[in-house]
Every structure is written in C-alpha cells, then in structure tokens.
Design brief:
alpha+beta, Nucleotidyltransferase, domain 5, four-stranded antiparallel β-sheet, 6 strands, 22% strand, globular
C-alpha cells in the first residue's frame, strides 16, 4: 500500500520514520504491506500491517497463531523453517514451489484448493477498488490508518464475499 508516488519519497514528511521502501510484483513502492488470512467463506481471520520492507515469511507464524488445518499462500511465504514450525502447530502450509525447487506431490483436492488461492487476490482487489483502501495523497498517519481500518470494516460488513465452494471437490 503506497503512501506516495516513488518520485515524492524524499519530499514526503508525514510517514518519514514510519513507512519503508518495499518491493512487490508491481515493482518498488514506499509504504506498508497488508497481510491477510481469510477462511473459505472470504471472512478475514487475521491481518497485520507492516512496513514495506518486512518479509512476508516473517509474518506467517505471527498471523497463523491459534489456527489449525491448511494454510494456502504464495511463494513469498514459502520457507522450510516456517513450514515445519506451522506443522508442529497443526497447520500445513501449502504453496506453489519456486522455479529452483523440486516439485512436491500433492493430492487433487489440495491442488484444486491451491488454485483457489487466487480468491485472496479478489479480496484485496475489492478492498482496493470498492473500499478505497489505496490512494497516494495521505497527509497524516492517523488518516492513513483510519482509512485502512475503515476499508477492512466495510469489507467485513459486506454480506457478499468471494468464497471457495468446498462441496464441489468433495471436501466437507
């Protein structure tokens, strides 16, 4: 989540000691990252806001406390240490493998659910587009975080959310 455009980073004073430069699939940015865990019904289970330079892998164990079952994520959350720590907790981390890794055998049901991981992208898209999560003209830290929290609340109160139809794969 950008707080200003890249060419204004050095002039931007409101977030000088709070935000940080980070990189995403869209390139470099100055701001924060929103980490989300949702359930199969599209409900937000856990979230965190970190500086832009915080690694995704570091947030996995923090967000997944007290959760059990399966956790699907993207390659940024992939780590052998994280996966083994989560497995001790009763939570299996399932991600696609990186290009330099050997493929792991997974069941058809798990493979189907891994492809449904894209629903989190739909949720983030709804937060950005319809709930106005992101814009680059923040003038105060308080205003920024009020906007982020109000976007999350507006999404939570929305009765229609993207979800995974588990009955189609025989999962109850």
């Amino acid at each position: 989540m950008k707080v200003c455009k890249n060419q204004r980073i050095y002039r931007h004073k409101a977030f000088k000691n709070i935000a940080a430069r980070g990189v995403s699939s869209c390139g470099w940015f100055y701001g924060f990252k929103l980490h989300l865990i949702t359930n199969h019904l599209g409900e937000i289970v856990s979230f965190a806001i970190t500086k832009g330079n915080v690694s995704d892998g570091n947030m996995t164990k923090i967000l997944a406390q007290n959760l059990e079952g399966f956790l699907f994520g993207d390659k940024g959350y992939l780590s052998n240490k994280t996966a083994s720590d989560l497995l001790k907790q009763g939570l299996q981390l399932i991600t696609k493998v990186r290009a330099n890794m050997k493929p792991k055998p997974i069941s058809k049901t798990t493979k189907f659910l891994l492809y449904k991981r894209g629903i989190i992208e739909t949720i983030i898209g709804q937060l950005k587009d319809f709930k106005h999560l992101v814009h680059t003209k923040y003038r105060s830290v308080t205003g920024y975080f009020v906007n982020v929290l109000s976007s999350l609340i507006a999404y939570t109160l929305n009765p229609i959310k993207p979800r995974v139809a588990l009955n189609r794969v025989g999962v109850v």
